[in-house]
Specification:
Elements (H helix, E strand, L loop, with lengths): L1 E5 L2 E5 L29 E3 L17 E5 L2 E5 L4 H4 L8 E7 L4 H11 L3 E4 L1 H4 L3 E4 L3 E7 L2 E7 L2 H24 L1
Parallel strand pairs: 3-5
Antiparallel strand pairs: 1-2, 4-5, 6-10, 7-8, 8-9, 9-10
Helix pairs in contact: 2-4
Length: 177
């Protein structure tokens, strides 16, 4: 039930009667009432986040879960306890046909991206480098390279741009041949 003031006429709506005609009451027929709202939102920390007492001004990091009219903040590890959701880490890999020189690819990607670091050959069984500490580019054979990354929004954007860059390098190589 709520009251609306429309063009100077106060109208009391008493419920959802969407299939019936609206019933308008005159101001003389409407009893006086007031509504007060508390604009502060309160969220309780639960499980692992509630184990430590926070000081005033200290921040907390977690998921905000709204259920009915309550808000709770929980750690990612506790998500499966309170919901049917589960969290997983997805490792992605793509193999691209690339017959150019691996050093040229690394040099071109260094020109495009800020951070391109070489990785030890022994650990990756051949030449490899990492882009933005998120994506690993590995030399598989004379005709293939592979890209490896853990899926998250930023890593996916980096991998998409590296894949496009590799394809553009391939176009440049084939156009000069």
């Amino acid at each position: 039930m709520f009251m609306a003031d429309i063009a100077g006429v106060r109208v009391l709506y008493t419920g959802d009667y969407s299939r019936e005609e609206d019933c308008h009451l005159c101001a003389a027929e409407i009893p006086q009432f007031s509504l007060y709202f508390n604009y502060e939102k309160m969220a309780k920390t639960i499980r692992r986040l509630a184990e430590k007492t926070l000081e005033v001004g200290e921040s907390v990091s977690g998921f905000l879960v709204k259920k009915a009219f309550t808000c709770q903040i929980m750690a990612l590890d506790d998500l499966h306890v309170f919901s049917q959701l589960s969290t997983e880490n997805i490792s992605q890999r793509i193999t691209i046909a690339y017959s150019g020189a691996f050093g040229v690819l690394k040099h071109r990607l260094k020109q495009i991206f800020e951070s391109v670091e070489s990785l030890p050959d022994e650990e990756y069984e051949g030449p490899a480098f990492r882009v933005h500490e998120r994506l690993t580019v590995k030399y598989e054979s004379e005709k293939h390279i592979s890209l490896h990354w853990r899926s998250d929004p930023i890593s996916d954007m980096v991998s998409d741009s590296v894949i496009i860059s590799i394809l553009l390098i391939l176009i440049l190589i084939t156009s000069y041949c």
